[in-house]
C-alpha cells in the first residue's frame, strides 16, 4: 500500500482526508476507447478476459489515457458461473448466453464450488501483471457479480426484459434458489479473497439485477448473500464497494451490509444519501452517464453539481451512476476527469 | 356516472369511502388471455387498435373473464405520434418502429398538432362502443403516453437499452426538445379531453420512460409536461391517474402535478408512499407482476401484504406495479382479483 503514488481512491473509500475527490468510471476499460477496440479487433471478448497480457493492456489504458485515479481489472462477471461448470458463450450482438441454464435440482447438481486460483488463474495472473504494469501509479480494483445477479444469468440463460424465468424460479423453487445462492456466495467470497491475494487493492460487488426485485424479495434473495459474500472475504484493509443498481429502497440496508462504500446509480440524490448513510460508509457515484453526450460546458456544470451535492469533506469517490456507454466520446470522459480534479479541491480544504 | 353499477374504482380515485378496494391491472386486455390471442390471430396489433369492434371486444374481455373493477380501452400510446404525422410500423418481435425518427428542426417541422376527433376517431368510436357494451358494469379508463415517453419513442425511433439518442438530443438540442414536448403536450391534452368527451370515466397518463432520467432531468423534461397535460384536460369529475415508472425520487412532485391518483411501481413501499403523499392523492398499485408466476397461496399472501401496507381507509386502487406479463396464467390473475375483493373488505370498515 505504501508504494502507491496515488492512493486518493483508497483513502476516500475509508473516509480518510484527501486533497481532492478521486475519480474512476465503471466500464472505463471498454468499447468507447479506440485503443480498446484495437485490442478487441484482434481477439474476442472472452479471449481478452482469459489472456492476462490483453486484460492488462486494456485495464491500464484508461489510467494512461483518461487520468483516472483507479484501475479496475478487465474481466466479466460471468467467469464465475463458467468456473462453476456452466458453458458460457458470447454471441455477437446478443451478449452472453448459457445454453444449459440452471432450472432444477438436476442442473443445479452439476454446479461445483470453485477453486479461484486454479479455475480462474487467468484473472489472478492479469491482476498480478496489471499491478506490475501500473507500478504503484493508482490502486487496482477487483470485482465480482453479486450472487443474485449471477443466479439471474444462470437461470435465465441470457438477457431478459421481463425476467420471467428467474422470478418463476424463486417463487416456485425458493429452497433450491437459496441453496444455489449460498453456493455462489461461497464461490464469490473465495474469488474476491483470491483477487485481493493477487494484488487487488479494493473489490467491488456489482449487483446489476437487484432492481428487478421488490423490496421484500431483495431482502430475501439478494441482500443476505451480498452480506454473506462480504463477510467471507479474507482481507486486511482492502475496502469493499457494493453497487446495487435500481435498489433505491435498500440504501440503509446496503450501508449496513459490511461494505465500506455504497455505489449510487444516477437516479439517487447523493445529498440525501449522504445524510442517510454517509456517517457509516463512503459513497461512490453518481453522474448520469448520458451526460457525457453533452457539451463539455454542460459536463462541467453537471460535475460541479454532483460535487456540490455531496458537499465538503471526504468519503466521496466520483463515478458515473452506471457504466460508460460505448458511444461516448473519450475526449468528454477526459474532460470529466479533469473537471473532477479541478473542481473538487475546494471541498477538501479545512 | 349515476348509471354505473360498480363505481368503486372512481370513488377510490377520489378517496371517497368504498366497501372494498377496487382492482384492475395494467395490460389486462392483453396477450396473457387466450381469448385476446384468438382475436389477435385474425388481425395485427395496429388493426386491432383501429377497428372499434375488435378494440371493444378485447377491452371488455378482462371484465367478463377476470372480474376487474375497471376496463381500460385497448389502444397504444404511439397512436399520438402517428396522428402527428409519423409513420408507425409494428415489427413482429421487434416492437414499434418509426423509420423516420425526429432528430432535428427539419424532421420536427413535419409534426402537426392533432385533431383527436378527426385523426383518432377510431379511438373515440372504440370508447363509445365499449361504454355501450359495458352498459354501466364498470368504469372505462382512457389513456395516453406522457409527452416525455412519446418524445423518447419519436426520437429513438424504436426500443433502446441505453437511450443514447434521446439523451443526446435533450443535451444538445434542449430548446428543440422543449418545443416538441410542448406540442406533444397540447396534443395529449386534446386527446385525453376527447376521450373523456367520448365516455372515458377516468384517464391515465403512462410515463414509461421517466425512470431513464436523473431527478434533475425529470424535473426539466418530463414533469412540467405531465403538469401541462393534466392542466389542459377538459374534464368534470373524471379523475386523472399518473404512472411514472422508475421515478421513486419524484413521488412528492407527482402528487402535486394535478393528478388525482399516483401509480406506484413494484419497487415502491406503498406504506411509506401513503405517509408521504396519501393525504393529497389516491395511490394505485403495486404488486410485482411476476408474483403471478407463483402459487395461488403465495399470491394470496402477497395481496394481503399490499393491502396491509396501504392500511385502513379509502384511496387505494389495487393494481400491479407494471403491466401483466404475457406468459401469466389467467387463472392466477382471476385468483388475484378474487383475493383483493375478499381480503380488502376489512380495511374499509369504520
Structure characterization notes:
- Chain A has helices at residues 8-13, 34-40, 45-50, 52-66, 79-83, 105-109, 116-119, 121-134, 147-156, 164-172, 174-197, 215-221, 223-232, 251-255, 270-277, 296-310, 330-343; strands at 71-72, 88-91, 95-98, 140-145, 202-207, 240-244, 261-263, 282-287, 316-320.
- Chain A is of the alpha/beta class.
- Chain A has a single domain, classed as TIM Barrel (Alpha-Beta Barrel).
- In chain A, the strands form two sheets. Chain A has a seven-stranded parallel beta sheet. A two-stranded antiparallel sheet of chain A has the order 2-3.
- In chain A, helix 14 links the parallel strand 6 (240-244) and strand 7 (261-263).
- The first copy, chain A, is globular and about 60 Å long.
- Chain A starts with 7 loop residues before the first helix and ends in a 7-residue tail after the last helix.
- The model of chain A has no long low-confidence stretch (mean pLDDT 96).
- Chain A binds chain B through residues 162-164, 167-168, 171-172, 211, 213-217, 246-249, 266-269, 288, 290-291, 293-295, 298, 305, 321, 325, 327, and chain B through 162-164, 167-168, 171-172, 211, 213-217, 246-249, 266-269, 288, 290-291, 293-295, 298, 305, 321, 325, 327.
